[in-house]
Amino acid sequence: MSPEELVYLGFIAASIPIGFLFRYLSPPVKQGAALLLGLTITIATCGIHTLHSLITVLGTWTIIRLGWRSAPAFSLGWTFLYLLFFRLATWVGLPQPTPFSNAIQLILTLKMVSLANEVKCFHLEKKKEVSSFSKSPVVGGLLHEPSLYDVISYSYCYVGIMTGPFFRYQTYTDWLQQPRPLSLPGLEPCLHRLRMVPVYAALFLSVNAVFPLAYVRTDEFLEHNFFFRFLYMVAVFFVFRMRFYSAWCGAEAGCISAGLGCYPEGALSKPGGGPTVQFSSDPDTPVQYDFRTIQNIDCFNTDFCVKVRHGMRYWNMTVQWWLHHYIYPNAPFKAYALRAGWTMLISAYWHGLHAGYYLSFLTIPLCIAAETSMEASVRSRLGPRGQSVFDWVHWFLKMRAYDYMCMGFVLLKAGDTVSYWSSIYFSMHLIAVACILYGRLFKGGRRERKGASEGEKAEEERKSEGEKVEEERKSEGEKAEEEGRREEQEVVREKIE
Prior knowledge:
By secondary structure, the chain is mostly helical. It contains 22 helices and 2 strands.
């Protein structure tokens, strides 16, 4: 393990017991202590480069104060342009930022863009309340506009400051204002999240020792046969997954111990976003809680979901939520494949400027187009047993596609990535193109309706994956919320009359 990885490991390990101590603090003390600890970690690991994050925070706060209506667009532009300056700092004679400052800058960029959107939503709903004489129906909305101290406290909160997961400002304030944090679940869900970490860590260390990434760059590697070169990427992606499974499960445990992101199960929380419905518990029924809001990885579904597009849902889940809510809807395209490509381009830029990121992320839309084509032209014509076989083949190819794309993500340089892909004859690119061509030649499947909305497509996908139960729970929550709003409006009308 590198020195940086040991520091990350130490930070994650220390954050778990520290989190339990934070449950004993009052809201103002908790806010100040979390800020002080986060700043201490930042200054200790980043030194002078702490100024980069501070400038980003102050710039975003200034944008919000100057005009909340345009703050989301300007904050996105500001933070992403500053990311470019941050990464090219050496070009203007500044010292090279540390890996820790890069990690903090990435998380901070997500937070600042989200904060600007939350503030805009707060002001819009406040205006609606004034005009309609009714309480805002928005779930998880802000109760007040954050001050500069609030923004700095949120930005430098020690929880996940270097490792994630991303969480919204509202999630942060809900954490500060928890009425009885000691009564919330902590030890049991924390141990449950950590139970597989030793296994992931052991597999990471052992397989990485046998299949080092550096070997791919040697001339000796190219002397091996095709099957060895092809299977090597399977081992590399396995190491990659075990590394992040260990880190993210540990980071989630640090959030759980502190109680961050703890909401009733009835709130139907989403990773990154938090509650999606208003929830009022029955006084006679014990409330069950979950930590879905800060869940960043679903290890089982990452490995065993069938489709490429679904694999992204279960990997870095809080960032996927951020991309889905702040990037995908504002893409300058209407077609799903082009929107997905735009979102992947932004994701690649957020990760860094290395060409390998772009080669990998921009391969995802090609794979999505291939699987969509084959589902329409082949799977739709098969019976139940044939569809089961198709899904197993689909899963196998999905995993190989992610193996293939992972090589660009870890090799980083364009030359190294293209060299490896050429050593296996760009096999996954060719398979994807062949699937698309086959689907167009034998297009027995249905074409996507021009007028179909993204919501309808997503609903069809969820139903095909067996998620009807969750949809039914959502609809019930929405109906209850709508009835509650109607009752409130009736009461207001009666008072006015």
